[in-house]
């Protein structure tokens, strides 16, 4: 294994993550009042009789000498990668070993699926030291298996954990995984199995946060990596002055990444899916807005230069298509229509026929939307379906789709100006052909043609729209954690060990006040039921019929249009459209001035300011 | 204008670039012997009677007090962006002002085109301070205008420069721009115009280097940015264990970037165009190699995990297609065929007919190659031509082309295994339909079908090949310069001022020994004629007929298969294919341990070692 110079240095003692003052030594636990769930209290209470209503707990420094018996703990990484996962495990390991060197930490390999298979590894200090401060989840891997009682997963997990004499399981995951952690905690407690379950908030998407959880880990690092390359592209944009860059950013369920990157880099335009939904915008609305901006910038000259601003940057959240209300409705109907008419649909071989068939089956409203889509998208939606029979919206290259549609819209603007000239030219060409041998008559015709060409050229090339498309996702999910994420994750893991030692279950590890210096961070635990409400989850049977199941979930945090980060963006964006206020944040720094190295995300700073 | 925290800090006194010891104070000039050109000495001497044979010069420290009269100097940025361009200008400015505070530096806006328009700005210290250590070329912009005597450019340049009383012009550019700088220097000298011309070696592609010029600026930074994101992708690859990433890297004329990134990150596979050409490989050869590697990795399990290695990374140089000898030949003929038969070709509207027409016009050998290309590429080559009528190879998304072709090749491997099973299944389906109402007979058939499906599934999904494609170019061209590039560029610019003050013309600014600490770098100048030879440049008339013009050029430095960097790569790559030795270099650092911050490229280190 070849270790990079940066990785070697980051693994050195002096560069290891810091702990908040409150976690450094012995702790005293402060318990709040009984809590209630975020919504649907009666239903949640009923579903979680053994874990509901537990208090928020906070750890404060203590001078007591504490001693703990050795325990075995298990840990799993669940779902998509996020920078800092290795530090959560390192913090957890350190916390357990500090309490009792005989305690053991087992990692289950390849996620919840590995837990069910009993595929485990005893984590030793040498391994931990190799992975601390590095990106990725490769220390034990991850997967997307969803732990479900119905599928017998809970019993299977119990067996595996009992065999290893594990008395606590830490699940590092997003909103779904933490919901599952809570359900599992309730199950273990109800059945008096003596196994605690603690969750840790992970996701680069930033959509696992609420009044109790400031942010999910990985969001800081991923946004900084994306902002670095967006900044570089903007500098290129502003130097070359000839490309429009359409940049799609990972994150299907919420637009926090796009919003944070916009706050960090000030692009000419940034689409926020939640705003599109709220304002009930159509795909055409979005295209028209972009087209108008391109036309407006084309009329602007740069200072004393005669270069029109035929360049710019547009940020696009990955989930956009599914947030456009008209398309969302269309997709819902498509999923049902395609499932119900699968056999008949498959008889059509030609793509055009398939598209026509689909249109014949859709409601008038949705058929209209479907027909308005570019051919490639219409086909994509008709053809590729996932293993559950759903259309695969995620396969649509939204960044290319928008660039292509904007290009077509700009062409449509040129058409009325261009058409008469092109007709004139066709007539002229015919004449030229006719007099090809008659030099005297030919000459003035050729001159006329040259004049006409000179008129056509600037119209045809008026907006000189040259798009470049990018999609950033894998570039940041596994980056080495920023100093913020490195410290935050280590604290989350260390803190998880304290929750275990305090006998807690059904809690999420919580570290707050993270815009302050690390020393002042506040550590504790939040009962997961406190973040829950009931939601109606659509369930599809094999005929594609939809029914609804009511399930407890941690509310997903979408971008709220009246929260500080969006308001800041909304108040600034008009200026960015035409004035160009590109910011070039540069690469994540691990040494140097704290203003550069230790800044949390702008989103978090703005959210904390309001308090 | 919003300035990022990093940019603010990098602009502070303590972080400004350092100068080599030899340039810090007064200098003495040491002149070598008369030089000869790299090749075709008689022809080059004849073309450059006034500048040929000048000596290599080196600046060494001097204790003499030197005084210089004030001078006016012009500077232009030419061609594609490269990190550090602003520092060249800052170094040049500082050098001129240090010699005489009354000297003036004019920047011509938007490149050589701006010089011809006389579009200039007097550069002041405040502006320089705003741009030092930043990426991009936006201080004055750049373009791709090629200065040509025939077009009257030289006379126009003279007028503009005379008007501003400019006695020296610094051209910051790649091999072409430096060739032009030399031709212009000869022109000014021949006509006794009293205007010196100095070149500076710029290009992220790394293909402007030779015995005298160690490296071109920007290569270091761009490769490090690309390697950062490649490393992140590899960590993701190794964590998620489910994607093959096909990563294309900018640089059409040479594969130095791909090679350097491979040396920095150890991907599973890296294509080097020059090797493809040398070994006379076909597109099919490349696809077969990749397919075989994917199949081989599919048979490997990871340690005690039961996960096959259905993941990996492939680096692809942007220029690959044009280096494949068979395709190169095809493109040459295509350009002629399409130009000669333009009118007839345009009569065909249907794409299929166009393709057939082209095949009918090509030589047998090229027709065969053309027919072997995927349909989308064949069409691309037939349809989109640039303003010179040439096919636009650069529009081919090579990374997607390779991923698609590999997918098809893997499918072809499955076919013989799958075909009999699918036939069996079709028969069974017919029987099931027949006995749909007869439960007794249906049951065993359904069981048989389930068994068959179980056999089909692992074959169909055997390689589970899931590609992701990326193209990195704009992400790195305008990054803020690394410490290496920041210092190198500042020294190149400062040194250019010393060459001007020493009365030199037709020289390239040269800073060598840059793998040593900055203090020990050796500054001087290389007569550009020394790097030149004659090349046959194909010229196409308007009928597409090719003729050949013999022109003096600086030899483009391609990757040489017997040079140290390629040999190092070749000796290691077999291990990377199956063993996974991914390196994660992380982001460029500006503060911290010198091993992290100040390392030059591995290419340069290996090249210097041999000395």
Show the helix and strand layout.
The structure is a homodimer of 611-residue chains.
Chain A: H1 5-10, H2 21-24, E1 27-31, H3 41-47, E2 57-61, E3 72-78, H4 85-99, E4 104-108, H5 111-117, E5 120-122, H6 125-131, E6 142-143, H7 153-163, E7 166-173, H8 175-190, E8 196-201, H9 219-240, E9 244-249, H10 256-265, E10 269-270, H11 273-278, H12 283-298, E11 312-317, H13 320-323, H14 325-340, H15 342-346, H16 351-361, H17 364-372, H18 375-383, H19 398-434, H20 439-460, E12 467-472, H21 483-501, E13 507-512, E14 522-527, E15 532-540, E16 546-554, H22 564-579, H23 594-597, H24 602-609
Parallel strand pairs in A: 3-4, 3-6, 3-7, 7-8, 8-13, 9-11, 9-12, 10-11
Antiparallel strand pairs in A: 1-2, 2-14, 4-5, 13-14, 15-16
Biggest interface goes to:
A-B, 65 and 65 residues
Biggest sheet of chain A, open or closed, and with what strands and sense?
10 strands, mixed
The number of helical elements of chain A comes to: 24
N- and C-termini, Cα separation of chain A: 47 Å
Helix and strand composition category of chain A? alpha/beta
Characterize the quaternary organization of these chains: homodimer
Q: Could you describe the 3D structure shown?
A:
By secondary structure, the first copy, chain A, is an alpha/beta fold. Chain A is built from 24 helices and 16 strands. In chain A, the strands form three sheets. In chain A, strands 1, 2, 3, 4, 5, 6, 7, 8, 13 and 14 form a ten-stranded mixed β-sheet that branches. Chain A has a four-stranded parallel β-sheet with strand order 10-11-9-12, sandwiched between helices. In chain A, strand 15 and strand 16 (546-554) form a beta hairpin. In chain A, helix 14 packs across helix 17 (364-372). Chain A is globular, with a radius of gyration of 29 Å. The mean pLDDT of chain A is 92. At the A-B interface, helix 1 and helix 9 of A face helix 1 and helix 9 of B.
